[in-house]
Amino acid sequence: MKVLGIESSCDETGVALVDAAGEGVPQLLAQALHSQVDMHQAYGGVVPELASRDHIRRVLPLTRQVLADAGCSLRDIDLVAYTRGPGLAGALLVGAGVAVALAEALGRPTLGVHHLEGHLLSPFLSADPPQFPFIALLVSGGHTQLMRVDAVGCYALLGETIDDAAGEAFDKSAKLLGLGYPGGPALSALARQGRADAFVLPRPLLHKPNLDFSFAGLKTAVAVRLAQLGAPRSDAQRADMAASVQAAIIDVLCAKSLRALQASGLSRLVVAGGVGANASLRQRLDEDCRRIGARVHYPEPALCTDNGAMIALAAAMRWQRGLGEGERSGAFDVRPRWDLAQIS
Question: In a designed cystine with 157, which of 77, 85, 86, 341 is the match (CB 3.0 to 4.6 A)?
Fold first, then answer.
């Protein structure tokens, strides 16, 4: 069974085709991705209306490219999947509308996928796929959550951010340092030139016994420290601040992840989402998990960002387990706000 996946929740248009043969892990046949980073840089962040318009321009050419790369035709598609939410409403509607229209024309079913479930399952496309059950750290621009995952569709929320997500802490701190958009990768690159112990910054909720996160106070502390330094700031000071910010975020993410593993009695951790591509975070988690005898799994770096492969994969895995029969009515909706723990 071949599943076409369309991702359009924010500022990346992703299309992919996977083959779900039997009960094995679906195999990625082809994928294509267009990032809107260059378009949004001038505004310092994502402009929803521009994002939606660009999805309209990109989704069909990307679909043609994927089918050509996979050596398939439209008639080979058995199921069309799309990101139903969460995300920007207008952007979600583009992907959903195209998916449903294509499925209706082909007489195929559609399946709306939770964006975070796509991230959660994306490591199954890696060279070292995980096995159930595991603890998942979902860490991206808008979400920071710890989940217990017992099977596809069986998710229990253990902890989440009560304010800013880790990705927002990266981006907002980067903006305070005068770095460009997207801020997170720029801050991480600058951090390689600095000292992580140069500035004393808070680790919010680090010593609390729960598994929740809070990063808003970190951004405020960065603003205060930078104001104390005054302007102009040297390149060394900016690099030191970037390194100190990154270290604070990583300390919290790692401590909470290990606490979740130990509390659950599980020995397998999955890390997914855009921040999961951070090399320093991966190195630290590898070391910490090795120390306690746990395994950690990541998606391939190219699959950490939003992409169509994770949507096609999630739809295929749900279909294999009888969790999604698909829609054939031609009707659809999107859910800009959608709690992952609510799906089954």
Answer: 341
Residues 34 and 106 in one domain: yes
Distances (CA, A) of 285 to 107, 138, 268: 46, 14, 12
pTM given for the model: 0.94
Is position 227 within any domain? yes
Task: Give the tens place of pLDDT for each residue, 46-97.
Answer: 999 999 999 999 999 999 999 999 999 999 999 999 999 999 999 999 999 9
| Helix, strand, coil in percent for the chain, rounding step 5 | 45, 20, 35
Q: Which parts of the chain fold into alpha helices (H)?
A: 37-40, 48-70, 89-106, 115-121, 166-176, 183-191, 216-229, 235-264, 279-291, 308-320
CA distance 131 to 142: 26
The single residue listed with the structure tokens 């959608």 is: 338
The parent domain of residue 282 ranges over 131-298
126 within a domain of the structure (yes/no)? no
- Enter the DSSP assignment of 327: B
Distance from CA of residue 300 to its chain's centroid?
Answer: 12
Task: Provide the pLDDT confidence category of residue 325 given band limits of 50, 70 and 90.
Answer: low
Q: What is the CATH number of the domain that holds 183?
A: 3.30.420.40
Q: For residues 189, 191, 193 and 196, what is the CA-based torsion angle, rounded to 10 degrees?
A: -160
Let me know whether 237 and 98 are in one domain: no
Longest Cα–Cα distance of the chain, Å, equals 64
